[in-house]
TrEMBL record:
PANTHER family on file: IMIDAZOLE GLYCEROL PHOSPHATE SYNTHASE SUBUNIT HISH
Alphabetically ordered keywords of this record: Amino-acid biosynthesis, Cytoplasm, Glutamine amidotransferase, Histidine biosynthesis, Hydrolase, Lyase, Transferase
Reactions accelerated catalytically: L-glutamine + H2O = L-glutamate + NH4(+); 5-[(5-phospho-1-deoxy-D-ribulos-1-ylimino)methylamino]-1-(5-phospho-beta-D-ribosyl)imidazole-4-carboxamide + L-glutamine = D-erythro-1-(imidazol-4-yl)glycerol 3-phosphate + 5-amino-1-(5-phospho-beta-D-ribosyl)imidazole-4-carboxamide + L-glutamate + H(+)
Lineage: Bacteria, Bacillati, Actinomycetota, Actinomycetes, Micrococcales
Record function comment: IGPS catalyzes the conversion of PRFAR and glutamine to IGP, AICAR and glutamate. The HisH subunit catalyzes the hydrolysis of glutamine to glutamate and ammonia as part of the synthesis of IGP and AICAR. The resulting ammonia molecule is channeled to the active site of HisF.
Organism: Brachybacterium muris UCD-AY4
Pfam family of the protein (one): GATase
GO biological process, one term: L-histidine biosynthetic process
Name of the protein described by the UniProt record: Imidazole glycerol phosphate synthase subunit HisH
Length: 221
């Protein structure tokens, strides 16, 4: 019998994280919702959820020391997954209503408002899975559930030497193309909500859990 992967969902005050916990449990993980540093470091995987404003989310993550946990895990090649604003804060900065907030800087670039007639982008949408994606294995043609007004709309990270290039998945809303997911060594993130994406989201979470014990070589910047 294979080992049940342990996952910590970082409890930093983000709303409605119970659905994330339930979805991960249904996908086969043992899940703790906590901000305890030791447990977050020891778990096989760490999930960083986020809803609402960029500035508020990054402040909440920093308030519980989550930024240090994320950095320490990634330095050791330990898997981290961001969801929604949890993806956005991995970039250098976010710009909301003309106010810039500093992010975690794992990836270069800025999160900005979607340039579409209808914002927020709310509902089901298809994706353009990046070549070689493990996360979207078997679900490349499925649709996922998005709720957001801001996104990372450019990818600025260049490949470094022999290190595997990140796998970037894209989506479009109102003609505006934005990053839907990134797989970058130990760091994975989705702009959409896998926990609200039905069978496709469940498969994606199982794909991520299956990789927790795998080789996670590659830089996270």
């Amino acid at each position: 019998m294979s080992k049940v992967p342990s996952v910590v969902v970082l409890d930093h005050g983000s709303g409605n994280v119970r659905s994330v916990v339930r979805a991960l449990e249904a996908a086969g993980a043992h899940v703790d919702l906590t901000a305890d540093r030791a447990r977050a470091l020891e778990a096989d995987g760490l999930v960083v959820p986020g809803v609402g404003a960029y500035a508020a989310t990054i402040a909440q993550v920093r308030a519980v020391g989550g930024h240090r946990v994320i950095e320490q895990r990634l330095a050791g090649g330990r898997p981290v997954m961001g969801i929604c604003v949890g993806l956005q804060i991995m970039f250098e900065s976010g710009n909301e209503h003309g106010e810039r907030s500093e992010g975690l800087g794992q990836w270069p670039g800025e999160v900005t408002r979607l340039q579409a007639d209808i914002v927020p982008h709310m509902g089901w949408n298809s994706i353009e899975a990046g070549e070689g994606s493990r996360l979207f294995d078997g679900i490349e043609d499925e649709r996922f559930y998005f709720v957001h007004s801001y996104a990372a709309r450019t990818w600025e990270m260049e490949r470094i030497g022999p290190i595997a290039a990140p796998v970037v998945t894209w989506a479009q809303h109102g003609g505006d193309r934005f990053i839907a997911a990134v797989e970058n060594g130990a760091l994975t993130a989705t702009q959409f909500h896998p926990e609200k994406s039905g069978a496709a989201g469940a498969r994606l979470l199982r794909n991520w859990l299956a990789g927790l014990g795998a080789d996670r070589s590659g830089a996270h910047a």
